[in-house]
């Protein structure tokens, strides 16, 4: 059953989306914002966002995913030249540049190991695509957004919602892209791709396995003492680990660290880990840094 866009609660969700947007300037803020009330209108587990870079004269892509994802898929999605991304762009342009659903071809239609096949392997069957072009220049993209839902497809309400919310998404992500470009020490590697490349090449990631494990428990709302009991270490040792994590991620608090780690796919997934547990608020008052 589709939500009623005129229901009072839907209007309240929309208002909160609009009110929160002007405060979003950094990647981790965009991720947290996109995981809030925006999900009521545009549910997604993958958001691929592209902004036009005037230095390279091409779209520079950024990936926000709320579920762990294999590194080769991350690299493929961040490559705007991939066949799948170009096909999605072509369908959107052919559809008079309105929000459009684009199915990911079935396995029989895909080359084994291709980006589309790999997405199918992990439970994605459809993309929701929309973007903006320069005024008076319909062939020059300013931004492109591709959303996907894990094991689910988009209905007409989501298509209409995308059209309505596109200006807000465009302005918010443009601000994020400009801010990150100004403060980034290096633009050789797109944001979010560094951990994926590190995984593929065997380069040691910035977050250690123990820190990754602690981050999972932090994400699930556990206090330092509770995490220490799980790992057989003291709460003070856990606190020291958390402080190192905050410094490495440039985060101000535990919730921000979790949001950054999730947006960079840094939490991973291990059998029997906290990934199997339901999400609880990382800002729980029982959890002190």
Architecture overview:
By secondary structure, the protein is an alpha+beta fold. It has two domains: 8-190, Transcription factor LuxR-like, autoinducer-binding domain (Beta-Lactamase, 2-Layer Sandwich); 205-276, Arc Repressor Mutant, subunit A (Orthogonal Bundle). It is 46% helix and 14% strand. The protein is built from twelve helices and five strands. Strands 2-1-5-4-3 form a five-stranded antiparallel β-sheet, sandwiched between helices. Helix 9 packs across helix 11 (235-249). The longest helix has 28 residues, at 156-183. It is globular. InterPro entries: Sig_transdc_resp-reg_C-effctor (IPR016032), Tscrpt_reg_LuxR_C (IPR000792), WH-like_DNA-bd_sf (IPR036388). GO terms for molecular function: DNA binding. Pfam families: GerE. This is HTH luxR-type domain-containing protein.
């Amino acid at each position: 059953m589709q939500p009623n866009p005129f229901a009072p609660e839907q209007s309240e969700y929309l208002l909160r989306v609009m009110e929160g947007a002007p405060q979003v300037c950094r990647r981790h803020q965009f991720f947290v914002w996109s995981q809030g009330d925006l999900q009521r209108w545009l549910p997604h587990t993958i958001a691929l966002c592209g902004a036009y870079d005037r230095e390279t004269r091409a779209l520079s892509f950024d990936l926000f995913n709320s579920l762990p994802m294999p590194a080769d898929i991350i690299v493929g999605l961040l490559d705007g030249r991939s066949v799948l991304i170009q096909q999605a762009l072509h369908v959107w342009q052919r559809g008079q540049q309105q929000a459009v659903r684009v199915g990911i071809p079935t396995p029989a239609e895909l080359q084994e190991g291709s980006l589309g096949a790999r997405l199918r392997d992990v439970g994605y069957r459809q993309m929701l695509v929309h973007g903006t072009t320069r005024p008076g220049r319909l062939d020059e993209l300013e931004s492109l957004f591709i959303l996907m839902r894990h094991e689910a497809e988009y209905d007409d309400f989501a298509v209409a919602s995308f059209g309505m919310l596109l200006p807000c998404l465009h302005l918010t992500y443009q601000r994020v892209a400009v801010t990150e470009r100004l403060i980034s020490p290096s633009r050789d590697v797109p944001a979010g791709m560094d951990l994926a490349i590190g995984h593929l090449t065997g380069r040691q990631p910035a977050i250690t396995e123990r820190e990754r494990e602690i981050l999972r428990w932090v994400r699930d709302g556990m206090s330092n003492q509770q995490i220490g009991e799980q790992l057989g270490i003291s709460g003070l040792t856990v606190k020291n680990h958390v402080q190192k994590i905050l410094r490495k991620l440039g985060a101000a608090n535990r919730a921000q660290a979790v949001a950054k780690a999730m947006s960079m796919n840094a939490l991973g997934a291990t059998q029997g880990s906290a990934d199997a547990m339901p999400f609880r608020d990382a800002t729980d008052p029982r959890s002190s840094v």
